[in-house]
Amino acid sequence: MTRGVSAFMAVLLAGAMSGSASAQELRLGEAVVIRPTARLHADIRTKDTDGESEADVDLARRRVGVKGEITRRVEFEVERELDSNGQWRDVFVDVRANRALQVRGGHFKVPFSREQLTGAGDLDFIDRARAVDLLAPGRSAGVAVHGRMAHRVLGYEAGAFVRDGTRTYAAWPTGSEPTIAGRVTVRPLGSARKTGRWSSLELGMAAAVSDLEEGRASLRGRLTTKEVFFAPVLVSGRRLRVGGDLDWRPKPLGIRAEFLRADDARQHQGLLGETLTPLRSQGWYVSGVWSVSRRVELAARAEQLSFGTPGAADLQIWTPRAEQLSAVTDRAWTLGVNWTVHRFVRVQVNAVREQVVDRSRPGASSHVGWSPVVRIQVAN
Amino acid sequence: MSFRLRAAVLTASILAATSAPAGAQPPMLDAAALFDDSQLQEIRLVVNPRDWADLKTSYQLNTYYPAHFIWRGRVAKNVGIRSRGTGSRSGDKPGVRVDFNRFDPAQQFLGLKSVILRNHTQDPSQLHERVAMRLFARLEMPAPREAHVRLYVNNEYAGLYSVVEAVDKAFLSDRFGQNGGYLYEYDSDPGDAPYRFEDRGALPSAYSPKPFKPVTHELDPDARPIAAMVRAIAQTPDADFPRVLGGYLDLERLVSHVAVEAFLAEIDGVLGDWGMNNFYLYRFEGTTRSTIVPWDRSEAFKGGVAASIWRNVDDVPPDSRNALMVRAMREPALRAVYLDTLLRCAELASAGWLEQEITRAANQIRDAVRDDQAAPFSFDQFEEEVQRLLAFARERADIVREDVRRSPR
What we know:
The structure holds two protein chains of two kinds. By secondary structure, chain A is mainly beta. Chain A is 7% helix and 56% strand. Chain A is built from three helices and 19 strands. In chain A, the strands form two sheets. A 16-stranded antiparallel β-barrel of chain A has the order 2-3-4-5-6-7-8-9-10-13-14-15-16-17-18-19. A two-stranded antiparallel ribbon of chain A has the order 11-12. Chain A is globular and about 65 Å long. The two termini of chain A are 21 Å apart. By secondary structure, chain B is of the alpha+beta class. Chain B is globular and about 65 Å long. Chain B has twelve helices and eleven strands. In chain B, strands 1-2-3-4-5-7-6 form a seven-stranded mixed beta barrel. In chain B, a hairpin with a 2-residue loop joins strand 6 and strand 7. Chain B has a domain of 132 residues.
């Protein structure tokens, strides 16, 4: 057994043996509280190999970490992957002046999309929406201010980061890619103190700007099966992301929707060094969840993600330096069941149907099919 | 030069290449004109300078880059180019594969889907391949056409290359009138164990995708006939050998092919010093019968003018002999084909054909070689190798004839 898995099991065992949340805490005097955390996601996916489907078990997430507080003013969080890459996830400190003004510094998620900022254990579906997964920024080192006002009617987060955290290919070594991002949420019809059908409605808006160095590849299109349906092109210059979202939870129903767009400049990326039309990557999703019982939820989601240059005609040729790129679109529908077996164990079953429509290749066979996915999540 | 200025110059060069004088009709050109070796051709590639620099730096990788391909005013836009070769790979003078249909599956250029720009980094004369392929063609064996070219990349002279016809579906249609069969490239990399048609068992996976790499039907290479052929080589009694093997392979074409290699003192062909190499196998539509197509003759002539015609046939230990050639040479009719083909080669050489080809080609490329700053050989080495080839052309026929005379039929 590897050291990483041993640590993971130790944390889970400690959690399982403890009867209450307080028993999972380590207190150092009155001021310091430390909570160990662990998360394991085992996914069973089917994949096509030589025309035959076969099940593939993937340990999608193996993470351990600690969360804690030092006095009521300072919170911290450290989380690390236990896979062979061993990447740090969140490593940050949050200092609170008051509810309306908090400052966070370290390595954490660039604020942008609602679902991107939702923890992996709280998602309604196994995979985040394609647009969120592929278009939203990732984690980066940076500093941000955030807070909530008027009993959570208004919330905000804004920060400056070393890069946008997107894991994309770079043809040449690139330096820092300064990123500024901000997100605002508003509850137009209620606050934390109000109850009622509409009080939980929350709207969000976000924007992020990054400077991309030459040699950086654009965002890419990938199906849930990991198959690439839009190969990245070379970009350089400004990447502007904008997004909007909605979250409404009139129990037992829950409705979420988001729209995301990223425009990648392609300065001097033409074959002759000319500046090309920016690549536009955009997508949306609408999802609903129905709580059948305290432990069982049914979920459904419709989504779309497309890549191309605005106004491009059909039958354009894709190259990494193509002047125009006609739209390639992935449309997906997901049906799911979420079963909370135990405080630490959750089982999710999703069926995903994806269809790729490529305007540059009329008549070309497009990927259509249902892919079942099962996730067993163990976390404290 | 700033990239803006460079972009303007390159744009102008493309416009100049694509625009014809008012009222002028572009001449009818076909692939034969591209491979016409009666004149030195000129090909221009327009590539983003960073891509070209990256290709040269990462020449061991097969990364494709977009480019425009220009020849005699004809432009193929958005072709895919990549570094290519095995021993000939070079970062200073990259061998280049040009796929006209890499980014646009429907695009062809003069009916071609791809061409090779051979860099000649293993041959100081830069003539081995061309002269060898001319001999195959002269003996009416299907061989890739090729011509020497001055290659310009972004208007800068990149060196003397050869544009070589790719062995692909277009080649098959042109030579065999069909392209629906199974084409395999014999794929031997440095470090691979030498292979000479030894029996590896009945499983097709023992033969493809290594060493018989599928070029067509990549997703369903169906190497069962290859496995059956190899088993037949090992197990068929002598009396049945021509009939049984003839069902799998054009044996006369194979021994003729090997005879040409032997005449040219080839060291990296079917009877190569490191096992088999440098050929394609094409299995005709709806049959189990294949034929052979030559590839990459940069190592021709390197065995020396005195090389035996039985080199690597019976002058090596039994486990280093080619199993198919050993069986074929036991068959009198095939042995006769082998020796007769050698005599035909000798006849051509005696008549001065080989010497004329070498002289004509050397004169054609001499200035381009002198200007080639990327070549790994000096101009003096070029001249020395040309003289060695001319001596080979004059002396080889008598040596081969004497070998044939002493060989029992």
